[in-house]
Design a protein that fits this description.
The complex is a heterodimer of chains A (about 425) and B (about 240). With about 425 residues, chain A is α+β, with helices and mostly antiparallel strands. Chain A has eleven helices and 14 strands. Chain A has two domains: about 10-45 and about 230-430, no CATH class; about 50-220, no CATH class. Chain A has helices spanning about 10-45, 65-70, 135-140, 180-190, 205-210, 225-270, 275-280, 285-320, 340-365, 385-405, 410-425; strands at about 50-55, 75-80, 85, 90, 100, 100-105, 105-110, 120-125, 130-135, 150-155, 160-170, 175-180, 195-200, 220-225. Chain B is about 35% helix and about 25% strand. In chain B, helix 3 runs parallel beside helix 5 (about 145-160), helix 4 packs antiparallel against helix 5 (about 145-160) and helix 5 runs parallel beside helix 6 (about 175-195). Chain B starts with a strand and ends with a helix. The chains are: A alpha+beta (about 425), B alpha/beta (about 240).
Chain lengths: ~425, ~240
Amino acid sequence: MPRTGLRPRRLVPTGLAIVLAVAFVAGTMIFSDSAESAVVDQYARAARNVDVALTAAPGATLTPADLDAVRRTDGVASAAGRMRERLPLLDGKGRLVASFGDPGYGIDVGDEPALRSYDLAEGSLPAADGEAAIDSRTAASTGYRVGDTATAVDASERRHTLRIVGIVAVSGNVSTTVLTRAELTRLTGVAGYRDVVAAVTPGADPGTVRDRLPAPATASARTGDQLRHDLAKQAFAQLDGLTIGLALFAAVALLVAGFVIANTFSILVAQQQRETALLRCVGARRGQILRSLLANSALVGVAGAALGTLLGYLVAWGLLKGSPMLGTQLPPGGVVLTPYPLVVSLVVGPLVTVVSAVVPAFRATRVPPVAALRMAVPATGRSRRSLIVAAALVATAGTVTTAAGLRLGQPEPAMVLVVAGGIGNFSPCC
Amino acid sequence: MTTTHAVRADELVKVYGEGETTVTAVDKVDVTFPTGEFTAIVGPSGSGKSTLMHLLAGLDTATSGSIQIGGVELTGLSDRDLTVLRRDRIGFVFQAFNLLPTLTAEQNILLPGELAGRRPDRLRLAQVAADLGLADRLHHHPAQLSGGQQQRVACARALMSRPEVVFADEPTGSLDTRTGAGVLRLLRRSVREWGQTVVMVTHDPVAAGYADRVVVLADGRVVDELWAPTPDGVADRLQRLGA
């Protein structure tokens, strides 16, 4: 089929639909990847250098004797006990520091620097009673700085003043206070460890060492990889609601884009009816008409998908920056680009376009050649200004609905709102 | 097989509609168009002359009867074969909207060949373009050409492949008298000098005067034939029909 000549302006609505749809598909996929990567990075800190670990069952603890037993295990190079107890912290105005209603935890400084679950960001680590280091997120939300004093509430609801000597980076969103082991025991009344973590000697297999660990009945033994995997799974559970919502949004975008493309392509076919009939007169077979239109749609699909992927990258970036507004705290991290979203976008975009164009294109092949000889010219559409205004209103409503849906605590109504918002956002193109 | 008739129709009938509302647009027409002749089909509006041309050119299907172009029977051909026949053996010049607006004059002229997947015959293109005075217009788009130039591009496309027959449907209908005369002289020259067969539908006695023969149609039937017609003779014949 020869180039019968594209009229780029006529393809703008089709292109726009596919750009937006692909932008959402690419955007949500890139965002999910980035969020996962950020979460994994962050949780990796908790399991860094850990080859094997004993974890106490909820309510139970591990004793210094357990720690010693781990240290003596064949293949263990070094081991450390980790305390982690609830320790509410109050801000400068005496209010509880909480994240999602969850008060903070206290952890001990730890004996092995390499096996610590946090990094010192500023100042120093607590070395004496009454000294504490707090996590950077809590520091940011309370305004506490090194040298300030903070108040912690002990197990018997008594208040204790702590001098902040350092700021640390930790995993998770929960407010964390680092204390000396003695101070933490004094405040919480608990002496045992939640975890005993260990590094193995060079060459030792973590799986083998794990099986050798003297695990008490109230604790389970895992390798570092298992630990990381479990931590990541726990972390993704937080993300699932958001990514599922976004994936739904992307699916709606694709669906609506399909309709929009079918619609705009039908209009295109109607506008080109005389051209098509003329082509049929001078010898274009039906198959050639069909192929030409589908080739055009593929071209628009590829161009739209390329632009959409680019836009999707920006969407992902925006979602990462804007995630606190959507009610989800994400660890800081850049946009992570894996080949998967790119491949999916660049395949799905043109595919949706071509599939949606099949019916209108097929209809075009039914235009009788004689239609070229008729003088009638199809009339142009309705008033455009009122359409644009209506489209803008519906799009705004869609965006508001989507934002409301994402902020809503309960997942089910939120999902419905997000989907409704998605349809609102995309239907103006129809 | 060679025939002396480029186009031949026997007992050709075209009926529109069904039941009580049927309209017989073409009623048992027998007509032949010899090779190398310029024929005009004239008749008052509603006489069925356009329908007859659509049938002869394979643009529409007859209710009954037979049509042969260059010895090939058209009735019973599949849509695909009919399309290929139009592409390879028939040239078209319409009253208006002859050209694809997105293609240049040259691309429009070469369009049927390109649809057939043929390599463009540059020599033939240069010859036709020179003869039709289009040599310096080949890279213009239709919108940049005058009405007369557009019709000449359409003629060039029709003549490019030396078809069995060129069908022209009111080719001067949208042109002023002088430009129209240029297009008619061009069609006549293609018959005289290149041995082309041309069948033209028109309601204009002056246009019909350029033909070798005039076939007069009324109420779907051939009612008369005039050889070496003059505009006055054709006008007179049409007037008597209208009365």
